[in-house]
# Entry
Amino acid sequence: MQYQRHTKSRDLRVKPVRKLVVWSRLRQLTIIFHMGLFSLFGGIFTPFHAAVADSTVIPAFIDPSDGANLSSRWFAREIEAAFLDLGLRLTDPRTATTNTARPALANGSGRLFDQLSAALKSQKQAGLLIETNLSPVENDRVLPTVRITALPSGRLVSSVASLDVAQDVSRDELRVAALSLARRATRQMQDNSRDLAWSNGAPWAGDEYMVTMTIENFNGCQQNYILEEMETEFPGFVAIDLVDASQSHYASYTYRTTAKQQRLTKWLHIFFIEHQMVPGQDFTILYHNKKLRLILENGAKFGTVCITM
# Structure
């Protein structure tokens, strides 16, 4: 069944663990090569920008689950860069605690939550605690996750998981996971923490506009999967309307959003790359004059999406 019309939801969605995926070595190298090109030319690389000081913005703190593990440190760093690119500036936890000589991260997430909550309560402030984790799953793989809790209330405002990756994951793969998770977490915070001034502004956002979007060569199940992701996980979503679905592998929609065009196409690239697809080989994204085309090339596999057993 095709999407008919969808408007913005404000329910917190905690994604279940998706089916395990094993990338072939050749496909890994090809995707990493393309990620390197995107980084070189500014496609998916998320550079640090100086945040504008604003006393009304609540502090956000990051807590990696295992600071001694190189992959965990890489992942936390990529999450920090991805959130900064979306307008969320992270603060060193030691700046909020009374004992600045001892890093609060060494005490574990539960202890850190208590320390930060006590410090913020004394200052009559609110904040956010961002916990990153690479959770072990089967077949020597790990699941990148992000959990965001409001301080000092303890209210969960976002919980998202990526596709699983190998334990010896490359930093490029962690960057893709981080970009995807930060985007999805931002959407959840947008829906579930409107009472918290957590951003200096949204560099990804602009005025609402409408895009005419066609999804080509994807079957109906895959089309719905893409639309669900864009509806529930993309910041700035307003509505989707079906225009034409007279063919099984071609459909046209109108998509209304406040996300800038460059961010929208970037998020779509990351979404497909996360599903083991190579830009230009497995999929093509074209955008011109508010017309967006998502094209599946050469009968490529869309990860494990809609594969019947």
Observations:
- Residues 171-192 form the longest helix (22 residues).
- Residues 203-296 form a domain with the Gyrase A; domain 2 fold (CATH 3.30.1360).
- The radius of gyration is 20 Å.
